[in-house]
Design goal:
Number of helices: 8
Number of strands: 8
Number of domains: 1
Shape: globular
Strand order of the largest sheet: 1-3-2-6-8-7
Order of helices and strands: HEEHHEEEHEHHEEHH
Helix content: 40-55%
Strand content: 15-25%
Structural class: alpha/beta
Largest sheet: 6 strands, mixed
Bound molecules: iron/sulfur cluster
CATH superfamily: Uracil-DNA glycosylase-like domain
Length: 197
């Protein structure tokens, strides 16, 4: 699947990106994390969540007691969308047409991994899976059984927690984010116990 996606030209984003950045993680993962798109660093390395936001997520996962073998990481869009700003490549939001063009890859990953839950990180991922009217700011932390996707949870993207400038506010949001991760895992584990009982 990864090899097939490396040749994808289903939307125009491949033209200015270095490579397809496909999902990565355990094929037996029960937690399926989905973000918006690869960033500048991921575009160069070819690995999702390899930059600062990904490293921050890794730390938060560890703090929440979630081992990597339970996790699969991907994005709703597999190519880096950017705009030039001086010599920098600045991330640009993907359009719904690009998200829809890339949706078959996301569905294929979901069919292959068959996770117990999808965790949407940030507004773009949440809107792609939970619908365009979903607001992470209002409905963060709620579980929704989405037709075609299954049990889904939405929280902030780790990069947006990292970008908070006030120290107190950042610490508070970090705690909330880690608590969201703990909550996801405890519900998945409780569900598993209930299924066995
Ligand atoms: S963003 Fe997705 S749909 Fe568009 S070219 Fe890349 S892999 Fe294909």
């Amino acid at each position: 699947m990864r090899e097939a996606a490396s040749c994808c030209t289903a939307c125009n984003l491949y033209i200015h990106a270095t490579q397809t950045v496909f999902g990565d993680g355990s094929p037996d993962a029960d937690l399926f994390f989905v973000g918006e798109q690869p960033g500048d660093y991921e575009d160069e390395t070819g690995s999702p969540f390899a930059g600062a936001g990904g490293r921050y997520l890794e730390i938060c996962l560890r703090e929440a007691g979630i081992p990597r073998e339970r996790v699969y990481l991907t994005n709703v869009v597999k190519h880096f969308k950017w705009e030039p700003r001086g010599s920098r490549r600045v991330q640009a939001k993907p359009h719904m047409t690009e998200i829809l063009a890339c949706a078959p890859w996301l569905m294929a990953e979901l069919r292959a991994v068959r996770p117990k839950i999808i965790v949407c990180l940030g507004a773009t991922a949440a809107k792609a899976v939970l619908g365009k009217d979903f607001r992470v700011t209002q409905s963060r932390g709620t579980f929704v059984d989405v037709p075609g996707y299954g049990p889904t949870f939405a929280t902030l993207h780790p990069s947006s927690v990292l970008r908070i400038t006030g120290e107190m506010e950042k610490r508070r949001e970090r705690e909330r984010f880690i608590n969201d991760l703990r909550r996801v895992v405890s519900i998945v584990d409780d569900y598993g116990k209930a299924a066995v009982a």
